[in-house]
Design goal:
GO molecular function: transferase activity
Number of domains: 3
Keywords: Membrane, Transferase, Transmembrane, Transmembrane helix
Organism: Pontibacter silvestris
Protein name: Sugar transferase
Structural class: alpha/beta
Helix content: 40-55%
Number of helices: 17
InterPro entries: Bact_transf
Length: about 400
């Protein structure tokens, strides 16, 4: 008798391919969003296992797995299907969320079915085993107490300022006083991230037409200026080799048989790719009062509520929007999600709002904080944050 399994992915074609591959062994039910799946689950449907190939930070990702295991208490094994190697830090997060095992999309079919039949027939569900010591961030009790005391005290003391800003926001433009977006924080946890509204009400709809204004994307394109001639894939000589009076030593041959410089090729590909972070200078979507509260970081104050709830900490790595988090969920960059999400952090006080901060520098600072957290470091960041609030740059 075929096992009944659920397959979670927003990609319908991928689910169809999986169903075809296992048509003799599995009865596959596909769901492309969590609401659809949870509604089906509420009807008391029976199934033997769940296969999930969604992005960890997506609505079908680890947050849903936690809900299934911890809130709904399901005992069914959950298998994660990954595109590429899953780093130890992400493996740890999967285990903690309740994933039973991890397989790659180019999988050993026999091995996966053996694991499925074993776990779905056993009363106790085993999780991924890894003998290596995995790095994971655990919020110390002292830090949590500090966060509660500071956030609660600040919310009480700043309540008059909250009322003034709320009035100004409401008077200038139509729409709600507060704005929230879904962000990805510690361990890929997705939560509502609160701010004073500083943009027009239709700001999210306008973003798709403004990708060309992204500072990080422009920085990547600017790196091509160091190459001789126009930034095309046909230019052979790069600046370094021309200055040395020699031909490029590392050459590649493209599909048309043309010789190109490897350095130029890599830089051109980087400029063509989409940046993981989005930051727009002089963003036309921002209102006048919005510009003021952004430059003074007053718009960030409602995040004290997030800290009080436990979604964030006072100090940590900035929680990312879903569209940014989806681009950095593999390799060494996954480590940034092990550290706590914070209102302020290392990269904000290092080069806060400056145009010369590259995407690589920002990622590196996030990783540095995740790997080298200490109370001393937190105090230093907090002290540097105060003068940073009065800088004149547009952040």
């Amino acid at each position: 008798m075929r096992k009944k399994v659920v397959y979670l992915t927003p990609d319908a074609q991928e689910a169809a391919n999986f169903k075809q591959e296992f048509e003799n062994e599995l009865d596959v039910q596909h769901f492309g969003n969590p609401t659809q799946f949870l509604s089906w689950l509420a009807e008391g449907k029976q199934y033997d296992a769940i296969f999930n190939s969604a992005n960890p930070s997506s609505p079908l990702g680890l947050n849903l797995v936690r809900t299934l295991k911890k809130d709904l208490g399901i005992k069914t094994p959950i298998f994660w299907l990954a595109n590429a190697f899953v780093p130890p830090s992400l493996q740890q997060l999967c285990m903690e969320a309740g994933v039973s095992d991890i397989f790659y999309k180019k999988r050993d079919k026999k091995k996966m079915l053996t694991r499925l039949y074993y776990l779905s027939g056993a009363g106790e569900i085993n999780t991924v085993q890894n003998d290596r010591k995995l790095y994971s961030y655990k919020l110390p009790l002292g830090k949590r107490v500090f966060d509660i005391v500071v956030s609660l005290g600040a919310l009480i003391c700043l309540s008059p300022l909250f009322l003034v800003i709320a009035l100004l926001v409401k008077l200038e433009s139509k729409g709600p006083i507060f704005y929230y977006s879904y962000r990805v924080g510690t361990g890929y946890k997705i939560f509502k991230f609160w701010k004073f509204r500083s943009m027009r009400q239709d700001a999210d709809k306008l973003l798709a037409n403004m990708k060309g204004m992204n500072q990080y994307q422009q920085a990547a394109a600017a790196s091509l200026k160091g190459l001789v001639g126009a930034p095309s894939m046909d230019t052979v000589a790069c600046t370094a080799c021309v200055e040395a009076g020699i031909e490029c030593q590392n050459k590649l041959i493209d599909a048309k048989g043309k010789t190109i410089c490897e350095k130029q090729y890599l830089q051109a590909k980087k400029a063509e790719g989409e940046s993981a972070f989005i930051k727009i200078a002089n963003d036309p979507r921002i209102t006048r009062i919005g510009m003021f509260i952004r430059n003074t970081s007053i718009d960030e104050l409602p995040q004290l509520y997030n800290v009080l709830r436990g979604d964030m900490s006072i100090i940590g790595n900035r929680p990312l929007p879903l569209y940014e988090a989806e681009k950095i969920t593999t390799d060494q960059f996954a480590a940034r999600f092990i550290a706590p999400a914070g209102i302020t952090g290392l990269w904000q006080v290092s080069k806060r709002g400056k145009g010369d901060m590259s995407e690589e520098e920002r990622k590196a600072l996030d990783i540095e904080y995740a790997a080298n957290y200490s109370l001393k470091k937190d105090v230093q960041i907090l002290l540097k944050t105060i003068p940073a609030l009065f800088q004149k740059e547009n952040v």
